[in-house]
Design brief:
The strands form six sheets. This protein has an eight-stranded mixed sheet with strand order 2-1-11-10-12-13-14-15, with helices on both faces. The chain has a five-stranded parallel sheet with strand order 4-3-5-6-7. It is built from 17 helices and 26 strands. Helix content is 30%, strand content 24%. The protein has three domains: 177 residues, ANL, N-terminal domain (Rossmann fold, 3-Layer(aba) Sandwich); 170 residues, Rossmann fold (3-Layer(aba) Sandwich), CATH 3.40.50.12780; 107 residues, ANL, C-terminal domain (GMP Synthetase, Chain A, domain 3, 2-Layer Sandwich). The chain is an alpha/beta fold and 535 residues long.
Length: 535
């Protein structure tokens, strides 16, 4: 893999270099559409010039409400070439949440596809800072707003002369990406060009991606997993991005075979769903050699690797950081459930609530700092206090808890704000969920802390059953009692049709906490049911 110095780690430099190196080689494929590296370079030049004609310049913020289309990449990379700041928005956002993203980010223009245009249109009269809207598809709803409305095709029709690459620097802001908001209001993470590109460079190097690889991308492009850890990694390796609209368990392996994919990233929830699908011929006929999954238990790791006959990799990262640790295919199998270890790129500390270092094996908050410049965020947009709090004592505080073993491998435990303390015992919500998820009738589960009537916390679980399953609360408690420590067994259980999630499939636990607090007196309570848990 060819490398480039730090000063050339901007999207303009990288796309120009890769177009020269790879020319007609396929860069992006989506359904029947194929774009070579030269095509992508030209398309992003046209987008850059088209945005410039709209009056968008360096440091201007442009929000994008687009699904997984090549046009998403063309728009984001085109904005990057002129030094504008892309603000990818979760496509599930609507109403006040969407208004928050658009207003808080100071978006000057909005790029939206027709499917989401009505959501944007109803907010436009209240968004004084927005100059106009670029619509991919029909734009009737936005036209009525009185704002300037431009067809995406018109932006694409500008000339394909490359903007001056030296006008944009590696430390210039490239993105404002909102955190998932699983524990509260979303924060806008301001990321420089070098952050996302360094991530792609590092993943391509550590996982051994080459120009022969095809990286299948079905996770949403507005999330860094897909954009940085797949698309940017493919660019650095000179590989092909096979873009899918979304994850579909029933079509997954057929898509994988059709595209000739050799690698894909998956969430732990995706892996669990795939493992529960009936076996198919396609899952044995694929060309995949590697899958990055976060997180997986040791047993799920083994089941996943054996059934689908592929190498499993993992890592620890956050929107604010980079690939802090990496688990590569050549790592010891006994470390399979870990997130790997730093490969010279970062320092990690495990600390208590007072930032005092803890020893090997002790669980505490995971603190991170890079060994190279411009690997992390510039800060939270318009949130200086939150930025200072997260970076106190010269370390970035992840808000995650974990432990380092004697060999330096990082083991994720849970989110700090999702840990539960009951009767003097610290309980990992993640572990409760993993154990309950082993029940054959359980499709998904989320564990949260609720206030106990005898101080500290009680354990509450929301459970989604598999279609056709019949399971009682008492039967689930019996299963839990047989499979986990007595103090971990949930006191409250609620069966629910669907868990609230972000579009990147992260459970919005703060919503579950609000529901539990509101409905606590009406929830099924094993103590009221007279069920005793023995030690």
């Amino acid at each position: 893999m060819r490398d480039y110095p730090l000063q050339d780690r901007t999207i303009g430099h990288l796309l120009a270099a890769k177009a020269t190196e790879n020319g007609d080689k396929t860069c992006v494929v989506c359904d029947a559409k194929r774009y070579s590296y030269s095509d992508v370079h030209a398309a992003t030049n046209r987008m850059a010039n088209g945005f410039t004609k709209l009056g968008i310049g360096k440091s201007d913020h442009v929000a994008l409400l687009l699904g997984n289309h090549p046009e998403f990449l063309f728009a984001v990379w085109g904005l990057g070439k002129i030094g504008a700041v892309a603000v990818p928005i979760n496509t599930a956002a609507k109403g006040e949440q969407l208004r928050y993203f658009l207003a808080q980010s100071d978006a000057k223009w909005i790029v939206v596809e027709s499917e989401f245009a009505n959501r944007v249109a109803e907010l436009l009269p209240s968004l004084a800072g927005v100059d106009g809207v670029v619509c991919l598809g029909r734009s009737d709803a936005c036209v009525a707003s009185g704002k300037r409305v431009v067809d995406f095709k018109d932006v694409q029709s500008a000339g394909d002369a490359a903007p001056p690459v030296d006008a944009v620097g590696y430390s210039d802001p490239a993105f404002i990406i909102y955190t998932s908001g699983t524990t509260g209001p979303s924060k806008g993470v301001v990321s420089p060009h070098a952050q996302g590109l360094n991530i792609g460079r590092y993943c391509a190097d550590q996982y051994g991606y080459t120009g022969a690889d095809v990286l299948y991308v079905c996770l949403p492009l507005f999330h860094v997993n897909a954009l940085w850890y797949s698309c940017n990694a493919a660019l650095w390796a000179g590989a092909t991005i096979a873009l899918a609209a979304r994850f579909s368990a029933s079509r997954f392996w057929d898509d994988i075979c059709r595209t000739g994919a050799t690698q894909f990233n998956a969430l732990g929830a995706m892996a669990a769903v795939l493992l529960k699908q009936p076996p198919t011929d396609a899952e044995r006929l694929h060309k995949v050699r590697q899958s990055m999954v976060v997180p997986l238990s040791k047993q799920a790791f083994k089941d996943y690797a054996a059934r689908f006959r592929l190498e499993v990799t993992s890592l620890f990262a956050a929107t604010e950081t980079f690939a802090v640790t990496i688990y590569r295919p050549d790592e010891p199998i006994e470390k399979a459930a870990s997130a790997g270890h730093p490969h010279g790129l970062s320092e990690i500390a495990i600390v208590d609530d007072h930032d005092q270092a803890l020893g090997a094996g002790e669980v505490g908050e995971i603190l991170v700092r890079p060994r190279e410049p411009w690997l992390g965020m510039l800060g939270y947009y318009k949130m200086p206090e939150a930025t200072l709090e997260a970076n106190r004592n010269l370390w970035f505080h992840t808000g995650d808890r974990g432990r380092l073993d004697a060999d330096g491998y990082l083991w994720f435990v849970d989110r700090k704000k999702e840990s539960i303390r009951r009767r003097g015992e610290n309980i990992s919500a993640y572990e409760v969920e993993m154990l309950i998820a082993r029940h054959a009738d359980v499709a998904e589960v989320a564990a949260i802390a609720v206030a106990s009537d005898v101080s500290e916390d009680d354990v509450m679980t929301y459970v989604v059953l598999r279609p056709g399953a019949v399971l009682t609360e008492a039967a689930l408690v019996e299963f839990c009692s047989a499979n986990m420590s007595y103090f971990m067994v949930p006191r409250y259980i609620a069966f629910i049709d669907v868990l609230p999630k972000t579009a990147s499939e992260k459970i919005e636990k703060y919503k579950l906490k609000q529901m539990a607090e509101r409905d606590l007196a009406m929830l099924w309570d094993r103590e009221k049911a007279g069920i005793k848990i023995t030690r």
